[in-house]
Predict the structure.
Amino acid sequence: MRRPNVLITGTPGVGKTTLGKELASRAGLSYINVGDLAKEDSCGGSAPPNCPDPVCAAGELYEGFDEEYDCPILDEDRVIDELEDRMREGGVVVDYHGCDFFPERWFHIVFVLRTDNSFLYDRLESRGYTGKKLQDNIQCEIFQTLYEEAMESYKKEIVHQLPSNTPEDLERNLDQIMQWIEQWMKDNN
Ligand code: DAT
C-alpha cells in the first residue's frame, strides 16, 4: 500500500511538533522531527562536535555550532542520506523549521503553519527564548520566510498555509489533513 510523505514546516513555535505527532498517530504514519534526529545520542545533541561517545551518530549530523543562535548547524547532506530509505518507503510525517534542502521528490504535500505574533511571542518566551533569538524568530514569521521558502522549493499547488493559533485550529488542521491523506490513498492504491 502506497502512503504519502507529508512535510510540516514553519517558524519555531508555530505548532509543527504538536500537529505532526498527532497527525502521525491518527493516520498511522511515522513521525520524524529533523531537529531531534541528531539529538538521539548520548550527547543529547547539546555538545557536538565534542560528544564523549566515539560512535555518536548525532555528532555526524551536525557540521558545527552556531554560537550566535546557540543551536547546532545541521549537516544537511548527511541528514538527507540518513532519511533517504525511509522517505522512499513513504508514509512519513517530517517536522522541521526549514524546507529548502530536502529533495523536492520526497514530499507529496507541504503544510506551512502560521501563527499570529502575539501567540507566537508568548509561546517562544515560555520556551525560554529571549533577546535576538526571540526577535529573529518573530521576524521570520512576520516576513513569512518559511512560506516563501516552501513556495520556492516545491510546486506551488502542493504548498498550503494553515493557521495555528488555537486548539480549534489544530483540530481543524488535523481533520483536513486526514481527509487529504485518505483521498491520496484512494487515488494512489
Ligand atoms: P514547533 O514544533 O513548531 O516549534 P510546538 O508544537 O512545539 O511548535 O508548539 C509550541 C507551543 O505551542 C507548545 O506549547 C504547544 C503550543 N501549540 C501548538 N499548536 C497550538 C495551537 N494550534 N493552539 C494553541 N497552542 C498550540
In short: The chain is about 45% helix and 15% strand. Strands lie at 6-9, 30-33, 62-66, 71-74, 92-95, 109-114, 159-163. The longest strand covers residues 109-114. Residues 10, 12-18, 123, 164-167, 169-170 surround 2'-deoxyadenosine-5'-diphosphate (CB under 6 Å).
